[in-house]
Specification:
With 242 residues, this protein is mainly alpha-helical. The protein contains ten helices and two strands. A two-stranded parallel ribbon has the order 1-2. Strand 1, helix 9 and strand 2 form a beta-alpha-beta unit. Helix 2 packs across helix 6. The longest helix has 28 residues. It is elongated. The termini are far apart. The N terminus is likely disordered.
Length: 242
């Protein structure tokens, strides 16, 4: 029962450094706005002390709820941006309701709007730069050996059954189009057991393949959409015979 409840509320252990860094961005942005933007008060830090404390608490709370503090290596760019959008929307909604309830409040909605927009843009740029660097950098490349591999000979390959051939042909055309099928038909033995056809490929799955089991490996996915492509190609090369 506890496991079910935990799964429903999506409890997870947040990254502490991420929370500290996030609060630092919020405080830095607020300080910049208060110091350099024209305001109606001479002491904005004193006037907005309580609303800003509430703002930071709500920002951290909803960031946790919408999983912004999960390890970034487990998140995609769009998931992180959507989490940022949901967090911003929730905070705006709460402060917007407060402004509607108290229309004569001494606090300016323009200050809130400036902080929210500036924070969203700043956080977006941070996430964008992180993932741009992540996708542009290749980590942990395996060493490439130029020595001849022992017994690197392809295992015997046989023709697939008629039903298997039909199913494979339909799968290729469905996922990649008739042009891709004609290309494969011309250049590889696509209808043999020695050809491995993969719609999705993970580095771990490829690493677990037996060496020299296949003479051809076909990945039915655009290379530009694959992460760790250099490492993946090196692993595939090691699995294929000479």
């Amino acid at each position: 029962m506890n496991r079910v409840k935990e799964k429903m509320v999506h409890f997870y252990k947040p990254k502490k450094w991420f929370i500290i860094f996030d609060i630092g961005i919020v405080l830095f942005l607020i300080s910049t706005i208060f110091l350099f933007f024209p305001l109606t008060t001479q002491e904005p830090f004193v006037k907005y002390e309580i609303p800003l404390l509430l703002f930071v608490i709500l920002w951290v709370f909803f960031s946790y709820i919408f999983k912004r503090y999960r390890p970034l290596r487990t998140r995609s760019f769009f998931k992180q941006i959507f989490s940022l959008f949901y967090t911003t929307t929730a905070v705006v909604f709460i402060f917007g309701v407060a402004i509607i309830i108290q229309p004569n409040s001494p606090y300016s909605e323009h200050v809130l709007l400036t902080i929210i927009v500036g924070l969203f843009i700043t956080e977006y740029l941070v996430v964008f730069l992180y993932f741009a660097y992540k996708y542009a950098t290749q980590y942990d490349l395996p060493e490439v050996s130029l020595e001849s591999r022992i017994n690197a000979i392809a295992q015997s390959s046989e023709l697939l059954s008629k039903d298997a051939v039909k199913e494979r042909k339909n799968r290729i055309i469905e996922n990649n189009g008739i042009g891709a099928f004609r290309f494969l038909e011309q250049y590889i033995r696509w209808n043999e057991t020695g050809t491995l056809l993969l719609k999705e490929a993970k580095i771990g799955d490829l690493s677990n393949l037996d060496q020299y089991q296949y003479h051809t490996i076909v990945l039915q996915k655009a290379l530009n959409n694959m992460r760790g492509i250099n490492k993946m190609l090196l692993i595939i090369n090691d699995k294929l015979p000479e």
